[in-house]
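In the current project phase, the collection of sequences with tokenised folds has grown. One resulting record follows, to show the layout:
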Amino acid sequence: MSKSATPPPPQKENLHPRNLHRGQYNFAKLIKALPELREFVKPNPDGIESIDFGDAEAVVMLNKALLKAHYAIDFWSLPAGYLCPPIPGRADYLHYMADLLADSNEGLIPKGSKVKVLDIGSGANCIYPLIGNSAYGWQFTGSDVDQLAVNSAKNIVSQNPRIKPLIELRVQANKNNIFPGIILPGETFDLTICNPPFHASLKEAQAGTIKKWENLNREQKTALNFGGKKNELWYTGGEAGFITKMIEQSAQVAKRCFWFTTLVSKKDNLPHIYKTLEWQKVAEVKTINMAQGQKVSRVVAWTFLSPEEQAAWRKDHWQQK
């Protein structure tokens, strides 16, 4: 069996128990699924097969192979310059969200297209809808302010006929809005997910990139590691500013979604996030810790539904008629 030394097993064991990527990458299986990956797989300094994770083209090819081998996605592409997501971490978010829904459904994960998920900032890669639909059969709506990113995501979906009826992409025409203009009149969602812009400025994003290259033992570079457009990587006010706006706007559609959620990378942002949730008078807040190697992040989830409203939602949306 072919093995990969990056990331090493002790790091990947921290992933969710249902995550398909907890073990080492099986490059024999991946190359069988996507023969084009073969030219990027070489022994690392320890003599173990891997790819160069500093090579954007190699990482894109690895993602194509992972999506094809594990999620039955036959076609996936990424326009130049856009963010190339690490699939194991993206899958982890979704598995923890399945657990969140299960906690509200008597321990059973709601599956199938009756479960509707809104992905805020789905990007050009469309990664969360692809994995979430494959793993749980959920129906997704993805939104983004970038028309080119939406066009790319639509192209991915259109060339995978199995998922085409189950994933819809929408452009957010007003860059000051997150939910208005995306959640349509009378529309409801069981879950919203978001991986918000991490940085507050281009300068801050470039500093983060230099640190990543140092961790890869490379020369410092100013190019954004693994790509990323402005709206993907930074936002005025940074992560806290984006999440604050999201919480405030979620109150406008309070009863139209069961769980609103977002990744929170910076622990120091949590006190402000909790205070904002308190101001908006949410009914319940949950914080779910996620550990991915040496990186620790978390998901903050909130709902405006009372226990009685949650029970009614469960009966109307998830339970068999």
About this structure: Residues 1-11, 199-214, 219-226, 230-234 have pLDDT under 50 and may be disordered. The beta strands are 42-43, 49-50, 116-120, 139-144, 167-171, 189-194, 257-264, 284-292, 295-303. The chain has two domains: 1-71, 80-318. The two ends are 46 Å apart (CA to CA).
